[in-house]
Every structure is written in C-alpha cells, then in structure tokens.
Amino acid sequence: MARPSESETVWRIAESVRKGERRAVEVAEATLSRIEERDGPLHAFLTVSKDELMAQARAVDEKRARGEALGPLAGVPVALKDAICTRGLVTTAASKILEKWVPPYDATVVARLRAADALIPGKTNLDEFAMGSSNETSAFGPTRNPVDPKRTPGGSSGGSAVAVAAGMSPASLGSDTGGSIRQPAAFTGVVGIKPTYGRVSRYGLIAFASSLDQIGPFANDVRGAARVLSVIAGHDPNDSTSLTTPVPDFEQACGKSVRGLRLGVPAEYFGQGLDPEVEASVRAAIGELEKDGCVVRPVSLPHTKHAVATYYVVATAEASSNLARYDGVRYGLRVERPATSAKQASALRAMYGATRDAGFGPEVKRRILLGTFVLSAGYYDAYYLKAQKVRTLIRRDFEKVFGEVDAIVCPTYPTPAFELGEKTSDPLAMYLGDVYTLPASLAGLPAISVPCAPTKAGLPVGLQIIGRPLDEATILSLATAVESKHA
Amino acid sequence: MLGSVREMDRAQIRHVAELAELELTEAEEARLAEEIGRIVAYVAELSAIDTSDVPPTALVTADASAPLRSDEPRPGLSHEEALAGAPRAEHGGFVVPTFVE
Known about the structure:
The complex is a heterodimer of chains A (487) and B (101). By secondary structure, chain A is α/β, with parallel strands linked by helices. Chain A is built from 15 helices and eleven strands.
C-alpha cells in the first residue's frame, strides 16, 4: 500500500525543520489535527500528550532560533507504544493494573529521542502487556486496521503501526518479543524493524519476556525507520543485555546496491497454511531482488515447526516471573479484601490475589498460569529446560544457513490481516499464526517487514528479511530495494 | 512424564494459580483448565525431539563481551518519587495488609 499522500517521511520533515522551511510547532499542530480527525474509529492512541508535544516543539524551534544545531529527528513526531515508560506521562501497558501509573523516569529510548529533537505525540494501544497478535487483548478496547476497519492491525504493537499507516505519525516505536513489530507492520503496510537482541536498550520497557523483548521502529519508509534506529541503538549501562558494539549510520545502508547478495528462501516458510496470495506476492518480491542481482537459493531451517511450542514455553515462563512484581504494594492497582479461605493465610495474600484477579485480563492470566506451570516442580525439566534446548536447535539452524547466505527472505505472516473476533475464541490458533516471526526472535536475529504487492482486495502483505546478528545494514539495503518497486 | 499431562484438572489449575498469586473465579478456573490443558498438550510435541547433548539457550547475545557495569552507588529515585505511585504509603514506607497475626 502506498503511504497516505499527505504523510511525509521522517527525513523530509527533519530536513525542512532544520532548514527553517517550517517550524516544529507547525508539524506538531498538523499532527494533533490528524490524530483528532482520524483516530476516533481506529483507537491507535491511548494517550495524546498535547501539552507536552507543543512544549517539545516550541523547545526545538527556540533551539534553532538560538543558532544551535538540531538533532537528526528535529521536529519529527515519533509515537510510543504504551509499554515504554515516559516520565510524568501515564504508561499503562494497556492493562487495568497500570491504568493510572505515572512513571518516575524515561526509558532510555525516550531520552534518546528527546535528545535527537523528536516530538512525542502520545502513547499507542497494544495487546495487554504486549501479549497478543491482534491488539484485541488491550484492556481499553482494540485498535482497528485503517486499510479495513473490520480487520485487526495485528499486535502487539498494533497502535504504533496504525499511527504510521494512517498518517498520524511518520514513525513510532514498538516492541517485538515474538513478532510484535513485524506482524503489525505487515498487516498495515508499513515498515517495521526488530533489531538484533541487545542492539537497543530495554531500560524503561515494561518487561514481558526478557530473553526476547527488543524495541524497534516503525516508519512510512525504510530510510525513516533506519534513521530512528540509529538514534535509539547503542550501549546503555542501565541494561545489562545491551551490547557495546558500535552502531553504524543505518541510513547509509538504504539504497546501497544489493547485487551479489546471497538470499536464502526457507522451504519451511512456504508450507501448509500459507495464503496463496501472500505466497504469490512474496515470491514476486524475491523475483525482483533476483533481477536486481541477488543470488537466490533454497535453504532449510528444519526446526521451524517447533518454534511455536518453544516460544510459548520460554516466553510465558519469563512472563510469569516478570509479572510477579504487580502485587498492589509499590505501584499500580490495589484491591483489598479480607482473607476468606485457609489458603489465603493472611490479608496480604488475599490482597495479592484480589489485585491480580481484578487487574489482569484473560490472556495475561492464561500466560502467567502457563508460565508458572512450566516452571513448577516436576515440570521444569520436561517443559522449560526442554524448550531451552530446542531453542538451541533453532538457533543452530540459522547459524548453519548463514554460512551459505547473507539474508533470509520469507513471508512475515501466513495471511493478510484477519478480522476482529476471528481468532479470539481459540488462543492456540492465535499463537500458531506467529510461526514465521518467532524463530528470528528465539535466535536473537535482526529482521524487517517491508510491504510488497498487496492482495487483490488491497490488503497489505509483508516480506520478512532476516539478517545475521548485528547485520541490520544488509536487511535495510534489501528492504530499500523491495520498497523502490512498491512505494 | 509429558504424556501424562494431556488435560489439566481443576486441582492442578488451582495449585498453579496459588503459586502465581492469582485468585480465579469458578468460571475462570473451568475455562483456563480447558484452554491451558490444550496448550500444554500442544507444547508436549517438544518431548519427541532428540536433545541429548544439546545445551540449553537461556539468552542469545551477539557480543559475549558485554561487560557488567561496576557495582558502585549512583544517584537514583528520591524517596518521594519512589513512593509516588504507591497505592498506600505512610511514614516514608509502603503500607501492606496484615501478614503476621
């Protein structure tokens, strides 16, 4: 899908603000009026931070007036998934348990955006605690796909994808644990990047599954996403998993020749369950890359079929631990109730139970319980430890293939965007759809979803490009080549 | 062991809910026992994979040199900021319901 004609790219906005062709305040006002005009039926935003946005814009304009150099995102609106902490601005994770929580600090990515002179128009809707693939588990109601409002925008970063797809913000940040940036990017026709695990600090990201969570950008073109990634990436002493590896200027990779790059097409990503129109679109995009001089060859990632089972053991185990902190004591919701049973030996435990029962929605409870089960005495080895071993096999599949090719190309999701309610009654069916995005997450690899040809009905389709660890540059070059045929 | 857990019974779900400090209604308990039972039956496919001599992966880091920062005191949240989000705070501390009679 071509981007809405009136929505400008990240780099064009920054350039015009830096040159003084227009003021950041004008960009901010236009952003607010577009949100006002469009977001009602879409519900991409949970919070629109009007006053803060205007204050940031004025500060950028004043900085320019003083003759100071402006940052690479001067006056560029970047909406934030509401799982990313913003000092003084309510951050909910789309959960009732954090409905009124105001963080006392900024996430590192937010501090970096501010330092680059970006503007933050607000906080976007998501699946509760990022647990879902459709934005339908949000405690505050679902987000709708601007391409077809009967359909979901995907999830869990659905609001951030829609903010960009509907022209309300040229870029946004999401988080991707098992596909939560790439799948909504594919469903809404925008670009979404999951960087290498460790590339971007998670300090201030509300944790879901810590060995998988990674923050990344959405944007209305590849170059814009690359610029945002360059700003947010890099070492942070506040996140022990953040890498010290130097960050290149990712924007320079955009438009670089792809001639001679070797691309692997994994047979396991083109099997049963793949929608024929999605397959045709993805194969056509791969054919175009071949015409550009890429060398395309079949490869095999034989453990792909076990990615769903592996992921839903590992991720829920980590989630059950991470979400133990929501206990009604230090922040968030608290529901007090007298102890009613012998099991609730104290009023304290009765408060824990009542708070968590009232505060968490059904999908979050399901995952906490599953995760608690796989970690519990008698089952730990059979489920959790076993899944960690299979994770090694999935990782090794990639290591072997990356000895032969420079990138892997495949569909982002087996189907175009599905309709609201289509999968909510069957959690397992919802999980199974994630089969193409989970392996790169389990292996910690960078991956991008870039729009290729839409279906006959006009629904967006995403091509997923998976790279070697820390080789975001190559997948950005390839994504730019794909985009040049479809933008 | 995996084969024995094809369905989760109500006692099992109650036990897990207690470990997770989650109070469930009767209706939730019934629904979750069924749903989680089905998911557990699905993930049991992992038992058929040969993982002898395969080490577990807990974390994938592209750069093994990632150092830990030195363990020295640094400025953090003030007392007031740390307590600002608390549902109940008094005398500079968090207030919790009775847990020892």
